[in-house]
Design goal:
heterodimer, A: Aspartate Aminotransferase, domain 2, four-stranded antiparallel β-sheet, 15 helices, 17 strands, B: mainly alpha, Sufe protein. Chain: A, 6 helices, 2 strands, about 55% helix
């Protein structure tokens, strides 16, 4: 039995007030709040078990290294990766996709080579590819979503041609909540020798993920959206691809030997983890993964489906609200605009006074905004601790906006 | 010595009279609605004020008497209201008066800052900074 109130008790911040009202935190798509388990793991790591990793032979360094490295296995298990060496620690999806762009793609991309991506990608899964367009003459091939916000996997497959080197798509849209059939896309890519890059920033938070079943080459996710610390995250990178990658950042930890006239690199994945990493952030991410795994990703997904259905009914019942995207099986992410003169920034400013936190803006997805014909939307994005009552508070606050601006 | 206009003082009085945030927002929105919208043709890149969460345009108008006058607009209604307030504060003033006004203190008197999100406050600052630049350019020119 999913006890959302017990879960809420695990998140200290949820009991605070904002503008004299109980906090209704619906900006999980941007970043999620942290459970005590994560805060305590980080506190313990700093307070009692802190030293640099991979370096010292002393007691604390060994202890910190053990705790830090244990997270690699946790992430591998969480994502269904067969080998924990396929997990590269980093600061999140942006770092992960930039590593793929620089480390794997840049040495291989010739002018005219194509990168296929969907119009609903987050800028983190666009800009690193634009670099290759700008610097190396790569061609970006965009695949549209349909009126419901669905991405037809066949349309992505049809966009793959003889010059396509990479297909880069999101697993779940951060604006529309659309879940993409990435397994079908990755299978087709693999058959054609095309490398697949999946942005799992949202999906890894809201549904069970199995990279072996998806069959992708790369899968990026971000710790801070997964109830973990900001500045944590990891990239799943298939071992064969890591063997092909050149290192990105140079520095400590990623080398085997440095001489005046030559260097040799550490084995993957350490080859891609230069410098002192976010030790405690990664340990905190391990605690977050333990936390969500303890609840169960299936249970979390089921809870969020219920919230989604409830919010869907309530929000689509407001006939002056335009909800963007209506994909079946979407995540509990709702982007909307209001008919009349109210701008998304107006809405978020006013409902903030009611304690409701949503995001307003382009959500780092400007090509999608252009496709939808809007400059900005409001986005309410739900997480494992959100309730039906919070949907009601949101709806009341929106009704007040309609009265104020309409 | 009061540096502000009667129009601004009237707004300040009205806002002071409203003690709840909903009423204050309502009033700011009304001020924005009462303002003439900028024609599409004048919503140019040159007129754009960056650093605002929403789109903001400020168009200075020539005034034969050497005073700063301007019109402004935004796609967000609360921001339109803020532009109306800035209009009351600055428009029709001599450049030296514009530069002498302590915007932070005057807007602080309206108690609006605490009602504006951080991004929006930045937008307000960006607008004030644009208007001061325009006044400075008039002085120099």
């Amino acid at each position: 039995m999913y006890d959302v109130n017990r879960i809420r008790d695990d998140f200290p911040i949820l009991s605070r007030e904002v503008n004299g009202k109980p906090l209704v935190y619906l900006d999980n798509g941007a970043s999620a709040q942290k459970p005590l388990a994560v805060l305590e793991a980080m506190d313990t790591a700093y307070r009692h078990e802190y030293a640099n990793v991979h370096r010292g032979l002393h007691y604390l360094s060994n202890l910190a290294t053990e705790h830090y490295e244990a997270v690699r296995g946790k992430i591998a298990a969480f994502l269904g990766a067969g080998d924990e060496r396929e997990i590269i620690f980093n600061t999140g999806s942006t770092a992960g996709i930039n590593l793929v762009s620089y480390g794997w793609a840049a040495p291989r991309i010739e002018p005219g080579d194509e990168i296929v991506l969907s119009v609903m990608e987050h800028h983190a899964n666009i800009v690193p590819w634009h670099f290759l367009r700008e610097r190396q003459g790569a061609v970006l091939k965009w695949v549209d979503v349909d009126v419901n916000g669905d991405l037809d996997p066949q349309a992505v497959i049809d966009a793959m041609g003889p010059k396509t080197k990479i297909v880069a798509v999101t697993h779940m849209s951060n604006v529309l909540g659309t879940v993409v059939d990435v397994a079908t896309i990755c299978r087709a890519a693999r058959e054609r020798g095309i490398v697949s890059v999946i942005d799992g920033s949202q999906a890894a938070v809201h549904m069970p993920v199995n990279v072996a079943e998806i069959g992708c080459d790369f899968y990026a996710f971000t710790g801070h959206k997964l109830y973990g610390p900001s500045g944590s995250g990891a990239l799943y990178a298939r071992m064969e691809r890591q063997e092909e990658m050149r290192p990105f950042h140079g520095g400590g930890d990623m080398i085997r030997e440095v001489r005046k006239d030559a260097i040799s690199y550490n084995d993957p994945p350490m080859k891609f983890e230069a410098g002192t990493p976010g030790i405690v952030a990664t340990i905190g991410l391990g605690a977050a993964i333990d936390y969500v795994s303890g609840i169960g990703m299936d249970a979390i997904a089921a809870h969020e489906r219920e919230i989604r259905d409830y919010a869907q009914t309530k929000l689509t019942g407001l006939n002056w609200l335009n909800v963007q995207g209506n994909s079946k099986g979407k995540g509990a992410i709702f982007s909307f605009t209001m008919q009349g003169g109210a701008h998304p920034h107006d809405i978020s400013t006013v409902i903030d006074r009611r304690g409701v936190a949503v995001r307003a803006g382009h959500h780092c997805a400007q090509p999608l905004m252009t496709h939808l014909g809007v400059t900005a939307t409001c986005r309410a994005s739900f997480g494992l601790y959100n309730t039906r009552e919070e949907v009601d508070v949101l709806v009341d606050a929106l009704e007040f906006c309609q009265e104020l601006f309409g | 010595m009061s540096q502000t206009s009667a129009a601004f003082e009237e707004i300040a009085d009205n806002i002071e009279f409203l003690d709840d945030w909903e009423e204050r927002y309502r009033y700011v929105i009304e001020l924005g609605k009462a303002m003439e919208p900028l024609p599409e043709a004048e919503r140019t890149e040159a007129a754009r004020v960056h650093g605002c969460a929403s789109q903001v345009w400020i168009v200075p108008d020539l005034d034969g008497e050497g005073r700063l006058t301007f019109r402004g607009d935004s796609d967000a209604m609360i921001v339109r209201g803020l532009i109306a307030i800035l209009h009351a504060l600055y428009s029709g003033r001599k450049p030296e008066d514009v530069l002498a006004i302590d915007a932070q203190a005057e807007l602080g008197r309206l108690g609006l800052e605490s009602h504006l999100s951080a991004q929006r406050s930045n937008g307000l600052r960006a607008m004030v900074s644009r208007l001061r630049d325009l006044a400075g350019a008039m002085q120099a020119g």
